[in-house]
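hey
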């Protein structure tokens, strides 16, 4: 039985778009909203305060913390437990291999999916969606590429090139893998 879905990839690789398509295919799939301390985009996050983050850390409930774009993003134990209630399958977005390793270590039943797009596609998508920090996102794209290259033995159940694979098609491939291991009731 699948515990959840881990989507790894650089900015603009399609994590949000594919997650939206997954939720249409299987109502059990739910986006995991990371805990965020900072500013900027709030949609898709559970916004918190530095004090709340300190409390999570003090209880040992931070599974993975990432500081990027002047913000702090956290995968936390209480948030994951809540996302899994009622047989739901959380879809967690990550862009760092260490984060993938930390979350996957909780349970081997995570479906690990590598989403990739070219740097040129990342630049175009960032511009098209109105990002004001495209240069920073391209720097993160390069860091993600280096991070991935530093772990050549990383294991993926599925690799998707989003330059040539439509979001719905990618979601259907992921959904098929979920249905095989976690049949709907």
């Amino acid at each position: 039985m699948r515990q959840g879905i881990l989507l790894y990839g650089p900015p603009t690789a399609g994590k949000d778009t594919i997650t939206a398509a997954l939720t249409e295919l299987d109502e059990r799939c739910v986006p995991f909203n990371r805990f965020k301390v900072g500013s900027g985009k709030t949609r898709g996050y559970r916004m918190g305060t530095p004090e709340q983050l300190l409390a999570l850390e003090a209880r040992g409930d931070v599974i993975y913390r990432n500081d990027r774009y002047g913000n702090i993003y956290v995968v936390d134990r209480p948030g994951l437990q809540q996302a899994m209630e009622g047989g739901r399958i959380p879809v967690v977005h990550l862009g760092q291999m260490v984060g993938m390793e930390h979350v996957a270590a909780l349970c081997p039943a995570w479906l690990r999916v590598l989403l990739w797009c070219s740097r040129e596609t990342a630049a175009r998508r960032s511009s098209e969606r109105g990002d004001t920090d495209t240069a920073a996102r391209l720097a993160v794209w390069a860091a993600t590429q280096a991070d991935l290259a530093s772990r050549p033995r990383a294991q993926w159940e599925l690799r998707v090139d989003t330059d040539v694979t439509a979001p719905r098609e990618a979601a259907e491939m992921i959904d098929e893998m979920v249905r095989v291991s976690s049949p709907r009731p």
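The two ends are 12 Å apart (CA to CA). Residues 16 and 93 are 8 Å apart (CA to CA).
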